[in-house]
Amino acid sequence: MKKPVIIDCDPGHDDAIALLLAFASPKLDIKAVTVTGGNQTLEKTLRNTKRVLSFAGIKTRVAKGADKPMMRELEIAPQVHGESGLDGPYLPEADFEEEDMPAVELMRQIIMESDQKVTLIPTGPLTNVGILFSLYPEVKENIEMVSLMGGAAIGGNWTAAAEFNILVDPEAAHIVFESGVPIVMAGLDVTHKALIYDEEAELFRNQGGKVSVMVAELLDFFFQFHQVGGYEGSPVHDPCAVAYVIDPDMFESKKYAVEIETDGEFSTGATVVDWFGRSGKEPNVEVLFDIDRTKFINMLLDATASYE
């Protein structure tokens, strides 16, 4: 039986690849895609979501969510994803419109009406999910898990202590991590091992077909940023959160108590992992630490080829 899933995203190059991976999987039933501001403004991330889905011929419900964090101004990442939020390939405008229903209302409707527990896969800031849990706590009873891309057990990529998605809206992250819903954290510890090297982008291009070539062009642009930063390849962060739901055996993980720092002088947005159980709190997060990279790359190649 397919797993019912809602993807909450902010495309973003790796979000786009995560969407393609999710919709290609025979194990997942994607009920909707909800969008938040994050890598770029909401206007741009919504446009990018619709363009990617339309380009790949994917039909689904898309809903517009929060345009800013719950308690802060939005911080975006044009230096990573470009001014459009999805610089690189040419993508025509979408051939469909988003739902009139706001993202949080659509999420609530789908979750409450589902006869199976729903899995949430957020690959951007956790604003939409935080608002959902705050306004409609009853939905938590019908959520299988939240498999998110965000956080890090050690170090950050936007500040010394914080990963971008969590830093953008730490208050929402705090709500989600304290929700009691099973949490899987695909943070930098694992995503920095989910590298696609420059020569591997050619594997996508050589598959032919417009979706595979588009992914290669996304990776070309993404690699330019990471090359300047000293990376040997591009860490494709967001597809890790999807890949875990499809095949958790691909990963190595351990469960820890994790808390979100919302007001630190140097550590706001940090996902504080209680390595030695000092807090006395029950472990609440499955933290991913390693990935079978070869299996992951092959999964992405198979997914993109399926659209041709």
Please tell me about this protein's structure.
With 308 residues, this protein is of the alpha/beta class. It has a single domain (3-305), classed as Ribonucleoside hydrolase-like (Inosine-uridine Nucleoside N-ribohydrolase, Chain A), CATH 3.90.245. The chain is 38% helix and 19% strand. It is built from 12 helices and 12 strands. It has an 8-stranded mixed sheet with strand order 3-2-1-4-5-6-12-9, with helices on both faces. α1 (13-24) runs parallel beside α11, α4 packs across α5 (127-135) and α5 crosses α7. The radius of gyration is 18 Å and the shape is globular. The model has no long low-confidence stretch (mean pLDDT 96).
Name of the top-level CATH class: Alpha Beta
CATH architecture: Alpha-Beta Complex
Strand portion: 15-25%
Q: What share of residues is helical?
A: 25-40%
Residue-averaged pLDDT? 96
The CATH H-level homologous superfamily: Ribonucleoside hydrolase-like
Oligomeric description of these chains: single chain
**Shape descriptor:** globular
Could you say how many structural domains there are in total?
Answer: 1
What are the SSEs and their pairings?
Layout: E1 3-9, H1 13-24, E2 28-35, H2 42-55, E3 62-64, H3 78-81, H4 103-113, E4 118-122, H5 127-135, E5 143-149, H6 164-168, H7 170-177, E6 183-186, H8 188-191, E7 195-197, H9 198-206, H10 210-228, E8 233-235, H11 239-246, E9 251-256, E10 258-260, E11 271-273, E12 285-291, H12 293-305
Parallel strand pairs: 1-2, 1-4, 2-3, 4-5, 5-6, 6-12
Antiparallel strand pairs: 7-8, 9-12, 10-11
